[in-house]
């Protein structure tokens, strides 16, 4: 790996590499992964095709820790934190946002299949044109005055979340020349203990940019990558109103033994 | 033992700044209130450069070592200690929280603040602990399991501005980051 790092352009934002070069790096890592025969389920922190990771990944092994004390508990959120309207990203302004109205819903469970109840879910995303309402996103696609792209909700007693939004567009970025991210929605998730905290990205099925994207490909295992792809669900789709996608989420196994009351 | 495979994480990316931070997110207690302390530091990369697009979260017990069970972190009422806070780094990689010194939750372990780190360029979140300085650190199980020359990366340093806890994502003095059971590769 060190040798490979030495020959690639390590400037995080120079956008000098070609897509063919990045794709070849992804393929080389993929071949190594299959030769290793050891299954991975999470992204690699050290994944050089994603240039910004070069100087931002720990080089030492993560240190084993048995969760204790505060780590056995999760922060608590409630109705005082989140208004129900925050789950609908299409009604935050005076007009209707442009794009495909979409419902995204699913269940959040822990590693033993127990629902994560009444817990906070936060999302953010680009608009239908692939533009974020963020000052650092300056690529020439239109902002939508009726779409901010930020939502929150609490899961229900069954661990189910549900957002109404606009399907985001793909967008260009500066990892390499002509780099485009597959359309995605960022998800921020809490569990029933601190160790389950995670942030991830949900993708849409069949995106032609999957194979080209170093962030998605930083998860080296296809089965694991598939876990980030929502499924089109016609039972979620509603007549003359919105398409529907289902995406279920599994958090790491809860470290805390549940009490009788849970 | 978990029976389901966890959903993979992904980087927080560059554009969380208009979505995740919220007013008062880094003020677990009002600045200047009785017992308030400042926990602050710099997040740096492997070249020692500041990381201006990181997000930190802390989670901790109150001064008596009681784990908070109150909601209200996102819309603080100024009176309820929820134990959880969120801060993004500024252009110089600096972050700051106003909080209280946590008490020990368990008699056999030293008090610490649990910390989660997210950043553009960081493909999955990192966990660490910020221990408060004190004599009882010598018998803490986790600290004793860390090589002696890296232990200091987990302990805050009192300074003029409060308690300093720098986070080095990579390099010679890299912060010790944690892997909990059930966190697979």
Helix content of chain A: 10-25%
Name the shape of chain A in a single word. globular
Oligomer: heterodimer
Mean pLDDT value of chain A: 92
Count helical runs of chain A: 4
What is the terminal separation of chain B in angstroms?
16 Å
Taking all Cα atoms into account, the compactness measure Rg of chain A is 20 Å
Biggest interface and residues each? A-B, 83 and 82 residues
What is the tally of beta strands of chain A?
12
Q: What's the shape of chain B?
A: globular
Cα-atom radius of gyration of chain B: 16 Å
Task: Tell me what the structure shows.
The complex is a heterodimer of chains A (262) and B (185). In chain A, the strands form three sheets. In chain A, strands 2, 5, 10, 11 and 12 form a five-stranded mixed sheet that branches. In chain A, strands 4-3-8-9 form a four-stranded antiparallel sheet, with no helix packed on it. In chain A, strands 6-7 form a two-stranded antiparallel ribbon. Chain A starts with a helix and ends in a 12-residue tail after the last strand. Chain A has 262 residues and is α+β, with helices and mostly antiparallel strands. In chain A, strand 6 and strand 7 form a beta hairpin. Chain A has four helices and twelve strands. Mean pLDDT of chain A is 92; it is low at 1-7. Chain B has 185 residues and is mainly beta. In chain B, strands 1, 4, 7, 8 and 9 form a five-stranded mixed sheet that branches. In chain B, a hairpin with a 6-residue loop joins strand 5 (112-119) and strand 6. The interface between A and B is large, with 83 and 82 residues. Strand 1 of chain A pairs parallel with strand 10 (178-179) of chain B, so a sheet runs across the interface.
